[in-house]
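Weekly structure sync, notes
Attendees: PL, DS, HV (note-taker this week)

Item 1: Gfo/Idh/MocA-like oxidoreductase N-terminal domain-containing protein
DS walked through the input record. Source organism listed as marine metagenome. Sequence as pasted into the shared doc:
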Amino acid sequence: MTIKYAIVGAGAMGREHIRNIEIIDEAEVVALSDTNSESLNQSLALLTKDIPAFNNHHDLINANLADAYIVATPNFTHLEILKDITKSNAHLLIEKPLCTTLQDCKEIANLTMNYPGIIWTAMEYRYMPPIQKMIREIHNKTIGRLHMLSIREHRFPFLHKVDDWNRFAFNTGGTLIEKCCHFFDLMRLIVQSEPSKIYASGHQDVNHLNEKYNGKTPDIIDNAFVIVDFINGVRALLDLCMFAENSKHQEELCAVGTKGKIETGVPSHQSGIASSDFRIGYRKNNEVKLEKIEVDKTILEAGHHHGSTFYEHKAFIRAIQNNSLPEVSLNDGLMAVAMGEAAELSIKENRMVLMSEFSF
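Item 1 (cont.): predicted structure, written out as tokens:
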């Protein structure tokens, strides 16, 4: 069974989806839509056959060509597009963040309460091979009971997007939603508990300060620390810097349990490194296990997320074929936005935020 995809949004992430679907035998892209003709043309050029292209998502939906839709449009458009696309009852892969606010996420959750298709929030960082191995080892109790988790992302500034929509928190939800929902999702997945309180410290110190759009200066945070306490007692830390592009690793993860510690990283695209070191250090006898995690070159070249988009699609397709539950649910997407919203609020109000302040 070949899964027919239609993609709403032909920008950078839409093109990454195309490149990955093109190397999956049991999937094909059958239609695209985007309001920007240049983005559409760039995406169409990646395909090995001619397909219909539409300048709005309404015509794409009405054409009824797809088994599954990918929503890869700017964050602030998700809510209105999802209101339309859910009428199709098709399977949905929705790029993160699910929406820009918790309130909008709740509206989508209510709208899709008895939805017949699979709704999957695209959190591709779950599918990076070194991170997948780390999750397995933690859940298998390799390092005993988990107590501390830290995630560092030191990377390049936000890229330029069509109409510069990603320069303002109103459009993105704020950096800790737009960028960091990935990491809050990973925290919940790894810790296997819900957050109870969040404290964040961050600011816009370096990036975009000299830019102006319609007379306005961008207002997106470019560095932050976020501490998350979970109900089960585990503590997690996010360390974000968006002006550290010349890093060996773009992501570095560390988990400490009663029996030992796991460390791994994801190479930055600029480093040219294709593999990841994976280290387990046991407390007993100072034993160390080292492993190198490799990613197939073809898969690596299909995107900018260390092969994860490919593996995400394989899992999504498997769920469709087996009529199984999504591995990354709409609720996972909602909770990631809620944590980001709490972190943004913590910075704005200079205080710890209790998750009980939000209604779910």
